[in-house]
């Protein structure tokens, strides 16, 4: 089976330069591209083969980028503000889309990237930037399970051998990457954060995927997302799957995504009007 081509580039955004990789389908696409938003420790490289497989399976362009401070993008010194999810949606993402000439997209976010996908769809609902959105293992609020999982991860990376796994992908930014996650989410002042207000503004169709063994949040998360969005929504719980469904069962994830987007493209799920 033929594979489409991929390309790499750097895009200037407020605050620095971000690394972008784009996978093109074999045939010219007729549907909006998917833009992948990585998790708190992630980067383009850590999506591994999933973007190429997704592009091939769906016949769509797939875009992934390293957020500022991550992977091959510019370094950051300051700790993220408590508005970092909204800031990504308000500042960086529209700048990326403008640079790439993207007028309509499907944001597909994993973990905190899923929260960013929701914020993007909400903040840009008037211009209908998002034709639909996919939130995988997203946290719409904070549970004790979330805190316990992050504390366990912080302890895990206190071992230099394990910290080396982050350094492999983030270089000298690795310690900043870890602290940006753990110290933000474990801050008592962040405990009341949630996506409830944003979800009310989401008018495009929403797919929330979640593993029933996710160590950072219960199945209350996808049910809350699907139940709170203003547009058509669907929650899919994957059995015996943890926090990274696209690695643990990529074939199933692609089946779920393909079925959802077929319904969106076929008009079964539509964007509601404001």
Shape: globular
CATH class: Alpha Beta
How many β strands by DSSP? 8
How do the SSEs run, as a string of H and E? EEEHEHEHEHHHHEHEHH
InterPro entries: AB_hydrolase_1, AB_hydrolase_fold
Pfam families: Abhydrolase_6 (PF12697)
Protein name: 2-succinyl-6-hydroxy-2,4-cyclohexadiene-1-carboxy late synthase
Enzyme class: lyase
Descriptive report:
There is one protein chain. The protein has 274 residues and is an alpha/beta fold. It has one domain: Rossmann fold (3-Layer(aba) Sandwich). It has helices at residues 50-58, 84-100, 112-123, 144-156, 160-170, 174-185, 196-201, 220-228, 245-248, 250-266; strands at residues 6-13, 16-23, 34-37, 62-65, 106-110, 133-136, 206-211, 233-238. It has an eight-stranded mixed β-sheet, with helices on both faces. Helix 8 (220-228) links the parallel strand 7 and strand 8 (233-238). Helix 2 (84-100) packs across helix 3 (112-123), helix 4 runs antiparallel to helix 6 and helix 5 packs across helix 6 (174-185). It is globular.
């Amino acid at each position: 089976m033929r594979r489409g081509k991929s390309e790499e580039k750097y895009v200037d955004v407020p605050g620095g330069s971000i690394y972008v990789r784009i996978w093109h389908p074999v045939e010219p696409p007729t549907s909006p591209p998917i833009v992948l938003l990585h998790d708190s420790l992630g980067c383009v490289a850590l999506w591994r083969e999933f973007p190429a497989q997704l592009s091939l399976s769906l016949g769509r362009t797939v875009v992934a980028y390293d957020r500022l401070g991550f992977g091959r993008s510019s370094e950051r010194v300051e700790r993220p503000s408590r508005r970092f999810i909204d800031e990504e949606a308000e500042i960086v993402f529209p700048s990326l889309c403008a640079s790439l000439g993207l007028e309509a997209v499907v944001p597909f976010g994993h973990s905190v990237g899923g929260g960013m996908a929701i914020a993007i769809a909400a903040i840009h609902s008037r211009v209908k930037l998002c034709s639909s959105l996919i939130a995988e293992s997203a946290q719409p609020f904070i549970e004790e399970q979330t805190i316990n999982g992050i504390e366990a991860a912080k302890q895990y990376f206190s071992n230099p051998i394990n910290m080396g796994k982050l350094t492999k992908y983030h270089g000298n930014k690795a310690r900043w990457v870890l602290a940006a996650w753990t110290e933000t989410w474990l801050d008592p002042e962040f405990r009341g954060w949630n996506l409830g207000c944003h979800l009310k503004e989401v008018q495009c169709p929403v797919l929330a995927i979640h593993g029933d063994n996710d160590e950072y949040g219960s199945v209350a998360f996808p049910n809350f997302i699907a139940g709170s969005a203003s547009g058509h929504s669907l929650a899919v719980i994957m059995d015996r799957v943890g926090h990274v469904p696209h690695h643990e069962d990529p074939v199933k994830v692609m089946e779920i995504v393909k079925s959802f987007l077929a319904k969106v493209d076929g008009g079964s799920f539509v964007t509601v009007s404001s």
